[in-house]
Amino acid sequence: MSSIETIQSLLTQDSISQDLKNIAQKVLNHERISTDDALTLYQQGEIGFLGALANFIREEKFGDKTFFNRNFHIEPTNVCVFSCAFCSYSRMYKNKEEGWELSADQMMHIVKKYDGQPVTEVHIVGGVHPKMDLDFFCDLIRQIKAHRPDLHIKGFTAVELDYMFRKAKLSREEGMAKLKEAGLQSLPGGGAEIFSPEVRTKICEDKVDGEGWLDIHKTAHQLGMHSNATMLYGHIESYEHRIDHMNQLRAMQDETKGFNCFIPLKFRNQDNDMSDIAESSIIEDIKAYAIARIFMDNFPHLKAYWPMLGRNNAQLMLNFGVDDLDGTIDDSTKIYSMAGSEEQTPAMSTEQICDLIYDANRIPVERDTVYNEINIFQREDA
Ligand code: V47
Ligand code: SF4
Questions:
Q1: CATH number of 66-376
Q2: Is the pLDDT of residue 146 over 80?
């Protein structure tokens, strides 16, 4: 049965409320759903229903194509001046002896490890170290670009950028232009968490607020750079907070069209100050992804970041709106293994990521950071 036929059959079922049927009709008509509709989906939508709508949207946009990229991560430091309650990674105030900070030479050594390998992106993100300033990172970016000009540099959350720019006493426009001139091309989506001050003051009071996060991404978009957006879900926030968060992103995307993808991030509870909060169930995870796909109509891509969600659950999300599995990351990514993800050493080869996608009856497509297609795989190529 095609995804249209699935929805049409749902529209005839008595067990589905008229409100849900109206939303399904809007989706079929390519009409935007409202924030009230999103709440109805959260409150009344069963996963079969949500999956049918999310799948329809995903298949209309990309058919069975499922994107991934070949990238590697550099985490310059886990030392952080901030103290987000959900963070299992920062070591400024906790165990200082477990802190690390990499010199520019050490980071270039990581870059050089990938010489001759077909990676297209380096993702640079870490804690906020008082000594690693804008000039330090501009120099690093220049060195990476000089060594490997074709490598796309995606780096620094709005939290890191806000701190760097304030410390350098530069406006957001000036600071971003400097980084762009050095060779920074895109921003990752981290640091967004939940924009609502009601939640933010409880989970990450001291870092850039929601307005600042949005403004930094807008600044990047206005300079022609692209970025991603995340949402940390499954902790103390309500459905209304999630919808408000997505609504602010959707409104900005209408204005700038600079976001490539939306990434719901499941809160993991190990070894942080929110460990008493139970993690969300798989049903709640499915709802978060499917409703994101239905609501964020102007975001091209929906990404399941498998090192955090776990590869099996990320694979499952390919039936609930997800079209992107991030990358074939190597074992340098620590933020999730430290927070309790089952992916303790997140490494997946191209063959493994392709198999995961084939097993979900989808087609693996290697992409670059801005979603140009590099290679469409057939089962025998992987
Ligand atoms: O902002 C921290 C999250 C983010 C926990 O743009 C946690 O392509 C769950 O944003 N449980 C940083 N999440 C990572 C990030 C990211 C990752 C991969 C790809 C991209 C992209 C962006 O990690 C933080 C925060 O929301 N995080 N601690 C935790 N305990
Ligand atoms: Fe620092 Fe980021 Fe951890 Fe917050 S989430 S404490 S900003 S490393």
A1: 3.20.20.70
A2: yes
